[in-house]
Design a protein that fits this description.
Elements: E1 2-8, H1 13-23, E2 28-35, H2 41-48, E3 53-55, H3 58-62, H4 64-73, E4 78-81, H5 90-95, E5 100-104, H6 119-127, E6 132-139, E7 149-156, H7 163-188
Parallel strand pairs: 1-2, 1-4, 2-3, 4-5
Antiparallel strand pairs: 5-6, 6-7
Bound molecules: glycinamide ribonucleotide.
Residues 10-15, 42, 82-83, 103-105, 117-118, 121, 170, 174 line the site of glycinamide ribonucleotide.
Length: 191
């Protein structure tokens, strides 16, 4: 069994979708959800689905001696960032080389880096008059949004689309593709 920890900071629609997807799997499970925000709605979603949750501050996550044993306690061998807004410390990218993946709601390298998350991304995409956008699923390294790209999926932007329309289409792409890509990477390794 492969055990995933999902790191979250917010609403948790991706987190819930990933937990549900792997409930049907005999080889992969989400065994832990970790949030740096005590009030993240993702924690409510995970708890409803009987998935153990942990709240860990930035300082606690950055403390290798305290944090690594917590991951070991749940036998975690893969980390998924799903709307997680802190940088992953270097000791963790070393310990989980090619075993941490993130989803970003733009076609990287466009609209990523510091401050580019959630609706900020869609507002920037709309303001620039882009005719398409998409999602990027990528490995995590020590550069903000700098890891190797695994897969991207696109969606068109029509002239009348609002920022909310763009966000909606992005969420649909995330719901459709993220769990399958995670499964592919875990079962078949680095592409
Ligand atoms: C998702 O759209 C994800 O791509 C984005 O945050 C949202 C989280 O939604 N991530 C980033 O912007 C990372 N830079 P969720 O909490 O409902 O899954």
């Amino acid at each position: 069994m492969h055990n995933i920890a999902i790191f979250v900071s917010g609403n948790g629609t991706n987190c819930e979708n990933i937990i549900r997807y792997f409930q049907q799997s005999s080889t992969i499970r989400v065994t832990l959800v970790i949030s740096n925000k005590p009030d993240a709605y993702a924690l409510v979603r995970a708890t409803k689905l009987q998935t153990p949750c942990l709240i860990a501050s930035k300082a606690e996550i950055n403390d290798a001696d305290a944090f690594l044993p917590k991951l070991r306690q749940y036998d975690i061998d893969f980390i998924v960032l799903a709307g997680f807004l802190l940088m992953i410390p270097p000791y963790l990218t070393d310990a989980f080389a090619n075993r941490i993946i993130n989803i970003h709601p733009s076609l990287m390298p466009k609209y990523c880096g510091k401050g580019m998350y959630g609706h900020h991304v869609h507002e920037a995409v709309k303001a620039a008059g882009e005719t398409e956008t998409g999602i990027t699923i990528h490995y995590v390294n020590n550069v903000c949004d700098g890891g190797e790209i695994i897969q991207q999926f696109k969606t068109p932007i029509l002239a009348n689309d609002s920022v909310e329309d763009i966000e909606h289409n992005i969420h649909e792409l995330e719901q459709t593709h993220f769990p399958q890509v995670i499964e592919q990477v875990i079962l078949h390794g680095k592409r």
